[in-house]
Amino acid sequence: MAAAMDLPTLALPRFVEEVRAVAPPPGQALDLEWLPDGRTTLVFRALEGAREGDVWVAGPRTRALFKTKTGVARTVTLRFRPGWSVPLLGVAASELTDRMVPLGDVWGRAGRELGGELLAARSRADVMERVARALALRAGHPFETASGKLARRAVRLLEEGEIRVEGVADRLGVTARHLRRAFTENVGIGPKEFARTVRLQRAVRMAATSCDWARIAADAGYYDQAHLIADFRQLVGLTPGAFSKRAGGRMTQPKLSLSEFPLPVR
């Protein structure tokens, strides 16, 4: 294994979409919200008293998960771009779908020890540097596979919204079956399911500044408001209005800048 100082670096934003941190007031429970978005997330938790920490992997969700945790002093979450968790974590995204597992179950001893290493970090930047180095040392080879590249190209097409999901395979020159296999392995859900999460996330973002659900439904790509309500019920487990009220009262998790954090890779 190469020494840490010998590792070249690449910009972390290539692989990671966002990093968020939250520290609830002492004694206050932490409300966690995981909406379907086709992302895999690495979660570091420092427990109250700062004597114990752990790292979890949250796979892509097919249905929202709401949890309230007590005894947590602070968290840092690192959300991978769709299709990039596989080479960095070393496990198919489909094995993590709808699961939250200790990193130790994925990496073994190295995953179990990372929590303690992050607990010793003196700043958020230090946390990110240690996470980046751990990811680099676990990165798989070949780093970019053909199936991973195909899945990420499909992700871009679906997020841009310029083509219906039925036409993605034709645009990329592969069969629908081949695309679904590559997409599920690298993203954790199929292309049709991912397209639904894209639409849902559009609606969630719009709802932050508007309560006009008919307009939101039209602008987000739903057939009508009834379609939006049905999707919210199935994917989130709440009506749009109930979700909006819940979202309005939750603690904001500040987004951290990624540009200052280099990611070493072998």
UniProtKB/TrEMBL annotation:
Superkingdom per UniProt: Bacteria
UniProt keyword annotations, A-Z: DNA-binding, Transcription, Transcription regulation
Molecular function, one GO term: sequence-specific DNA binding
Entry annotated with the keyword Calcium: no
Sequence intervals crossing the membrane: none
Classification via Gene3D superfamilies: Homeodomain-like (1.10.10.60)
Name the record gives this protein: AraC family transcriptional regulator
The organism's taxonomic lineage, starting at the top: Bacteria, Pseudomonadati, Myxococcota, Polyangia, Polyangiales
